[in-house]
Design goal:
The complex is a heterodimer of chains A (527) and B (89).
Chain A (H helix, E strand, L loop, with lengths): L18 H13 L1 H4 L2 H4 L35 H10 L4 H19 L2 E3 L3 H9 L14 E4 L27 H8 L3 E2 L2 E2 L37 H8 L5 E6 L5 H6 L3 E4 L19 E6 L2 H11 L18 H5 L8 E10 L9 H15 L2 E6 L8 H5 L9 H5 L1 H6 L8 H5 L6 H22 L5 E4 L3 H6 L3 E10 L6 E10 L4 H13 L14
Parallel strand pairs in A: 2-3, 2-5, 8-9, 8-10
Antiparallel strand pairs in A: 1-4, 5-7, 6-7, 6-11, 10-12, 11-12
Helix pairs in contact in A: 1-17, 5-6, 10-19
Chain B lengths: L12 H15 L17 H20 L17 H4 L4
Helix pairs in contact in B: 1-2
Classes of the chains: A alpha/beta (527), B mainly alpha (89).
Chain lengths: 527, 89
């Protein structure tokens, strides 16, 4: 492994944070799950949605913009949008016009949005966005949060009859932050029922949101539960968006729709004003068209929030944009020397074409500077026991939040009802052991898995969701879906140790510097 | 009241169903509004009870998971608790 271009000070944060410190932190989160859940309302008087902390450490306005992209504003990436708006080449109102036109033409088929603002009001808001620069890094960016983020001007229904008609009186912290940074909310994205499964008509199992790559065939899922965000970003109805992940709900739909998405370390991003599912496993995650865009959005929202104690006392967010900026020089390279582990059986998926895509992906990574591939990493002791049912779950958490709604009418929960009732059947002994098992798993991932490698290419996200570790998904090629015969994107999932977002973004940036999968867009639906 | 069997035998599905229904009734959660058995419905009693039985039986798996009573995670030293105890050894 070559190690060019590395200085002593240029180190990612994952190597500088004590393993023991993060274990201690997560143990604290687990132990205060009950008491901590009431804290946000207690400290709400501090002011909801402060939205005053968005900063991009790196100025992206000087990054290159693809020739001709300006002719089709919705093709512009988030980085290109920011750069062109900053240079005065495009006005925020033009971006709103372009996205509103596409939403008007195609959302009737794609059904990506649960609620949309009035076009005139959005244009007026675009005209009043701050001047830009470091104080408004997202100026002109047309964004979509999932419908479980509170918005003061749009209903927040969580994809469920349980929240039908709910109108919050404030913005979630991250929504307020995006808006304060000049971002514009073009719609609330449809989602699976209370953050589970694909988006459906409330209280039924009838699908709504379509996969942007299969708009005419509802059988091919958009993924869940951040279905609408993935479809909107892939179909160019929004430049980027926000999802939430308790069990794969950002990375899953992102990989199904050719996006680059990141679920950061637990606590990096405020959950204040997000409909909860689990106090200890919920995460906010940017969903974008490439690694740089994901980094920009993460940079804008990764701040401590007095209304969410889980975000307080963490290491300050490093420069994600720097990490995701292609490493300069001749041959492609990951910014920092990185050992990339391969999950056991990584090339033995049931689908041969997926195996071939993975082989090509790993072969390219092997040719990338600063990379050493570690085949067949050894999984931590008792892996199956610690990650399988029942110890690998999040028992009781959803029930605790929804007892009054369960008493009102269990039918409102639709097909997700068991998930919300189960906590009432589980013993305190099980709950304690689930928490202990989770800490044992995290300890062993840090001391047994991430001693072999810095990041790991993995199949699923479950063990990383439960332990709060960062995960990134990115497209690696196209494949024919066996059921529908459609040509659809496939993604790779890569996970890291605590605060390893920079390394994940650097790997994705190196891959995307020499491939074009992230530039492919689905054809427009027939309307 | 029937005394529990000694040694305990695995409860039947019917016994677990009664336990589940009683538990929800105690909490004021009415699941009788669900259809008895309807594959077309988003949820029915049959599926809900089957899931509940599975969860209860998984509790046994969790109970069987043995953790060393002396198990503890490594924590930073001095631990955060020293803010209260004043013991910074």
């Amino acid at each position: 492994m070559s190690t060019r271009g590395v200085s002593e000070r240029d180190e990612p944060q994952d190597g500088m944070v004590s393993r023991r410190w993060f274990l201690d932190r997560m143990a604290w989160v687990s132990s205060v799950a009950a008491a901590g859940a009431v804290l946000p309302s207690e400290v709400g008087a501090l002011g909801a949605g402060r939205g005053d902390a968005a900063r991009l450490t790196t100025d992206v306005s000087n990054l290159p913009v693809r020739a001709g992209v300006q002719q089709e504003p919705t093709e512009m990436t988030l980085a290109e949008t920011i750069a062109l708006v900053r240079r005065g080449a495009v006005r925020p109102e033009e971006m709103v016009e372009a996205y509103s036109d596409r939403i008007g033409r195609f959302d009737g088929v794609l059904k990506a949005f649960a609620a949309k603002p009035d076009r005139a009001a959005l244009l007026a808001e675009a005209g009043q966005t701050p001047a830009g620069g470091v104080d408004a890094p997202l100026r002109g960016a047309c964004l979509t949060p999932k419908d479980n983020f509170y918005t003061a001007d749009l209903l927040t229904e969580g994809g469920s009859r349980v929240y039908e008609g709910f109108q919050p009186d404030y913005d979630a912290t991250v929504v307020a932050t995006m808006r304060a940074a000049g971002g514009l909310v073009v719609g609330k994205a449809q989602m699976g029922n209370l953050a589970g499964g694909r988006a459906q008509v409330y209280g039924t199992t009838t699908p709504t949101t379509r996969n942007a790559w299969a708009p005419e065939d509802e059988r091919y899922s958009p993924g869940g539960s951040s279905s609408g965000t993935a479809t909107a970003v892939a179909a160019r109805l929004a430049v980027a968006g926000l999802g939430t992940q308790t069990g794969g709900s950002v990375i899953g739909p992102g990989n199904l729709q050719g996006l680059t998405c990141i679920k950061p370390t637990f606590g990096r991003v405020s959950l204040h004003g997000v409909i909860p599912l689990s106090y200890t496993r919920d995460h906010v995650g940017p969903m974008a068209r490439n690694a740089l865009d994901a980094a920009i959005l993460l940079q804008a929202i990764a701040h401590p929030d007095p209304n969410d104690p889980r975000t307080l006392g963490l290491p300050a967010a490093p420069n994600f944009v720097y990490a995701a900026t292609p490493f300069p020089g001749g041959a492609p390279a990951v910014r920092w020397p990185t050992r990339i582990g391969l999950w056991p059986g990584y090339f033995e998926d049931g689908n041969e074409q997926v195996n071939a895509l993975r082989r090509a992906f790993v072969e390219q990574l092997e040719r990338t500077g600063n990379v050493r591939i570690v085949p067949d990493v050894r999984l931590p002791d008792q892996w199956e026991e610690l990650t399988g049912a029942p110890l690998g779950g999040s028992h009781g958490d959803p029930t605790a939040f929804f007892i009054e709604a369960l008493r009102k009418d269990v039918r409102d929960f639709g097909d997700r009802l068991p998930r919300f009732l189960n906590g009432m059947l589980q013993s305190a002994d099980t709950y304690v052991k689930v928490q202990q098992a989770r800490m044992m798993l995290l300890h062993r991932m840090e001391t047994q898995l991430f001693t072999q490698c810095d990041v790991v290419l993995t199949e699923g996200t479950g063990p990383f969701d439960g332990t709060g570790l960062p995960v990134l998904g990115m497209p690696i090629g196209m494949d024919v879906d066996e059921e529908t015969g459609l040509d659809v994107p496939r993604g790779a999932t890569v996970a890291a140790r605590p605060f390893g977002e920079e390394r994940l973004l650097a790997v994705a940036a190196a891959w995307q510097a020499v491939t074009d999968h992230h530039l492919r867009r689905p054809p427009d639906p027939n309307v | 009241m029937t005394k529990p069997s000694v040694p305990p035998v695995e409860p039947t599905d019917d016994e677990l169903d009664r336990y589940i229904l009683t538990r929800y009734a105690l909490l004021g959660i009415d699941i009788s509004v669900l259809p008895e058995s309807d594959d077309e419905a988003p949820m029915d009693l049959e599926r809900l009870l089957a899931n509940g039985r599975s969860i209860l039986r998984q509790d046994v798996v969790a109970a069987d998971f043995e953790i060393d009573p002396q198990f503890h995670l490594p924590v930073p030293h001095p631990a955060p608790f020293t803010a209260w105890t004043g013991d910074d050894r």
